[in-house]
Amino acid sequence: MNSRRILAQAQFANSVGDGVYLVTSAFYFARIVGLPAAEIGLGLTLGWAVGSVAGVPLGHLADRRGPRGVAVLLALATAAAVASFMFVRSFAPFVLVACLYGTAQTGLSAARQALLAGLVEPAERTVVRAVLQATLNGGLAIGAGLGGLALWLNTPAAYLTLFALDAVSFLVAAALLLRLPSVAPGRVAAAEPKLVVLRDRPYAVVTLINAVMLFYMPLLSVVVPLWIAERTSAPSWVISALLLINTGCVLLFQVRMARRVKGLRGASASVRRAGVVMLAACAVFALSAYGWVFLLVAAGLLVVGEMLLAAGAWEISFGLAPDDQQGQYQGFFGTGVAVARMLGPVALTALVLGGGTLGWLLLGALFVTAGAAMAPTVRWARARSLEAA
């Protein structure tokens, strides 16, 4: 139980820093550093692209060297990257630091999942992961509030102070992770390839399906605000209300939702239901042109789908991965987040704002199709793993 508490404390510490970064980074790079918007977008995209590639080998390193030590080192590397942003004044250094930041963050996520798998019994992993997700949302909310204060002050000192706070938050997380028990490295056969996950085709398809489902991520942060501005008469404060609904529901209900998911079959059913609920959310978002109250209903449906997806995906990602290779498998599964962050805003903005109601319905159909495809893919992956065993 103490290990779970420390994991949650470390998650909370750096999620406060993440919340600060998410709210202030674009304004800092544009207003203080003076980079054009196109260069900021390109640099951040390259950073996450490099990070998505580095996730698997860093996860493999966590498997071979022990996840606790690797997680601590990557938390320190993230702190160094955030601190380096304070000294960036041109595009080339910005790209280099963004790549370091994306690599360290992606690798840290994989190492943490391997650490969780090594410290928590299989039956409890999804519930503990849900606790960490709720903790993360709480930290993000606090960090976003601090970031809002910096935006209000809009001075170099305010931005630099919060970037320093972000760096310190990862130093605190590293110190907390160091207090966890050590997890023994996994053993590997001499003839076994190093990155086994890259040869696991069923797991790759499972990861692809999850990546498609994760395209919900840019909806509230990018697509819906643009939809509100262009297609509805809703007041601007509604955007904050939608984010509050999302954060509050995850804090209150994610753990309860995760407790209901038992085994791969239950997890697949949870993902399938998530697709149906997301389809309903997209249909209600399309109705918001006729009244902004539909936005609140749609946001409620979307967060239910998000929680169903998260609970099912966590159970599947842990359940299909060999225990001694959780790091590289979780690193590979986590690439879905990077893909959604890179491609989601552009693809969904074009689909929804260009297609209107039809665009929303097509997006919902994509979610429900991906959700339905998860169960047969998980059965295929499970059968392949049993054959290999």
Please give the structural blueprint.
Layout: H1 2-33, H2 37-65, H3 67-85, H4 91-119, H5 125-153, H6 156-178, H7 201-213, H8 217-231, H9 237-259, H10 263-287, H11 293-319, H12 326-333, H13 335-388
Helix pairs in contact: 1-5, 1-6, 2-3, 2-4, 2-12, 2-13, 3-4, 3-6, 4-12, 5-9, 5-11, 7-13, 8-13, 9-11, 10-11, 10-13
Can you put this structure into words, describing what you see?
It is built from 13 helices and no strands. It has 389 residues and is mainly alpha-helical. It starts with a helix and ends with a helix. 84% of the residues lie in helices and 0% in strands. The mean pLDDT is 90.
Brief description of this entry?
The protein has 389 residues and is mainly α. The chain is 84% helix and 0% strand. It has 2 domains: 2-178, Growth Hormone, Chain: A (Up-down Bundle), CATH 1.20.1250; 196-388, MFS general substrate transporter like domains (Growth Hormone, Chain: A, Up-down Bundle), CATH 1.20.1250.
Main features:
mainly alpha; 0% strand; 389 residues; Growth Hormone, Chain: A; 13 helices; 84% helix; single chain; 2 domains
The DSSP helix count reads 13
Number of domains: 2
Strand content: under 5%
**Number of beta strands:** 0
The end-to-end distance, rounded to whole angstroms, is: 32 Å
